[in-house]
Amino acid sequence: MRTLLACVLCVSAAGCTDLQSSDLKTAGMSTSMSVTADGTGQTTVTAQFNVDNNGTDFVNLSSGDSAVAEVASQSRTMSESNVLGVIAYQTTFSGQDAAGTQYTIALQRTTDVSAPSSVCTLPNGFNITGPTSSGTFSRRSDLTVTYDNSGSGDTMTWSLSGCAEGSGTVTGDSGSFTIPKGTLSPGGAQSGTCQDTITLTRARAGQVDSHYGSGGSLVAQQVRSVTFNSTP
């Protein structure tokens, strides 16, 4: 979410700025990290570093500095991406998406103090049981969403995109909730049948290494999506 917001801010401000990590102390950085399991067996680890706590001033890791993700006995150096000036580091793992799986994300440095111990644990996975990909939803009706493996106690949120749009928090984690039709906004095509996608996210906060002088955030999350037909 922070990376998406940063993209929007960068575009609206006509570009982001970046600073080489060799010109910056770890105490002058903040970080935004996530570990995301999508239900396919793949988990994506993402890390973004910023100057102080400025969301549009990015840190570009210089030679000798690296972001490394670790899980079980596996350790992988994260690769850089640059999308519209937003600099992030990412890697993926397979078969490491079970509930309780612990991930460590390290900023390893040769010119200043490292930040080796940002740690998070994946929450319980789940499956969306309704609506189904073969189902049809009328935009004139409330949308009831159901999922299994409920009652985790972790934070759950939802988002809907397509010809109807909206987002919110799932209250109670009971395995079922209803999105009233009056709370949704028009999205794409409003005539005829189109498609909507419902996405549920179960998230658990992790602990960011204290060496980041401006702090940051770390979240481990299970994310599931279903695309279905939507009629007027």
List the helices and strands and how they pair.
Elements: H1 2-12, E1 17-20, E2 29-37, E3 42-51, E4 57-60, E5 66-71, E6 74-77, E7 79-83, E8 86-94, E9 102-108, E10 115-121, E11 128-130, E12 136-138, E13 143-147, E14 155-162, E15 164-169, E16 176-179, E17 185-186, E18 194-205, E19 216-231
Parallel strand pairs: 1-4, 2-19, 12-19
Antiparallel strand pairs: 2-3, 3-8, 5-6, 5-9, 7-8, 9-10, 11-13, 13-16, 14-15, 14-18, 15-17, 18-19
Rg, Å, rounded = 20 Å
Low-confidence stretches: none
Q: Helix and strand string, N-terminal first?
A: HEEEEEEEEEEEEEEEEEEE
State the helical fraction.
under 10%
Biggest sheet record:
10 strands, mixed
Assembly state: single chain
Look at the structure and give the mean pLDDT: 91
Q: Note the beta-strand portion.
A: over 45%
Number of strands: 19
How many angstroms does the end-to-end distance come to? 30 Å
Q: Looking at the structure, what is the overall shape?
A: elongated
Our count of helices gives 1
The secondary-structure class comes to mainly beta
Descriptive overview:
With 232 residues, the protein is mainly beta. It is elongated. Helices cover 5% and strands 53% of the residues. The protein has one helix spanning 2-12, and strands at residues 17-20, 29-37, 42-51, 57-60, 66-71, 74-77, 79-83, 86-94, 102-108, 115-121, 128-130, 136-138, 143-147, 155-162, 164-169, 176-179, 185-186, 194-205, 216-231. Strands 2, 3, 7, 8, 12, 14, 15, 17, 18 and 19 form a ten-stranded mixed sheet that branches. The protein has a four-stranded antiparallel sheet with strand order 6-5-9-10, with no helix packed on it. It has one helix and 19 strands.
